[in-house]
Amino acid sequence: MSFKYEVVIKEHHLDSYGHVNNANYMSLYEEARWEAITSGGYGYKKVQQTGFGPVVLGAEIKFLKELKLRETITITVEMLSAEGKIFKIKQQMLKADQEVASEAIFTAGFFDLKNRKLVLPTEEWLKAIELTK
After folding, report:
1. Residue 31's domain is classified under what CATH number?
2. What is the pLDDT along the chain (133 residues), one digit of tens a residue?
3. DSSP for 78-126?
4. What is the DSSP letter of 21?
5. Is residue 68 part of a domain?
6. Would the pTM of this model clear 0.85, i.e. be above it?
7. FRET label pair with 53: which of 21, 83, 84, 111, CA 20 to 30 Å apart?
8. Is 53 inside any structural domain?
């Protein structure tokens, strides 16, 4: 899966230094992931209907260039791998000139909301994230 999500940096994203606060990078990345899976047909509504959905298990993030107020950025979402219950997602925040401002690798799993444990992903989920055809 490769997905692009455009967003404008707003006042609430900033810290006292006038650039995006480190914690807000995580929120912006999550927003882009939800847009990606929703466009793939497996958004919040589907998670609530089925009782199964994605859960983040870990994150490695790099801050490479500042993001400032009213910049328009593009956040990319790319599925790197899926092995058993675990999958890897790469995301980048690109400035208008396509310079990488931030890069993150997320380790995630497919979660059973009722039994509160990781499970093998369903075929429907894999199709939604385009790991199978």
Report:
1. 3.10.129.10
2. 689 999 999 999 999 999 999 999 999 999 999 999 999 999 999 999 999 999 999 999 999 999 999 999 999 999 999 899 999 999 999 999 999 999 999 999 999 999 999 999 999 998 888 854 3
3. EEEEEETTEEEEEEEEE-TT--EEEEEEEEEEEEETTTTEEEPPPHHHH
4. -
5. yes
6. yes
7. 21
8. yes
Identify the burial level of 110 via C-beta atoms within 10 angstroms of its C-beta, where 0-12 means exposed, 13-18 middle and 19 or more buried. buried
Q: Which domain holds residue 99?
A: 2-128
The token duo for 116 is 């509160």
Which residue in 81, 89, 85, 93 sits closest to 131, CA to CA?
81
Q: How far is 98 from 64, CA to CA, in rounded Å?
A: 13
- 133: in domain: no
Residue type, position 129, single letter: I
pLDDT tens-digit map of 28-58: 999 999 999 999 999 999 999 999 999 999 9
Pair of tokens at residue 92: 């980048």
Residue 93 CA neighbour count, 13 Å, CB half: 28
Q: Is residue 70 part of a domain?
A: yes
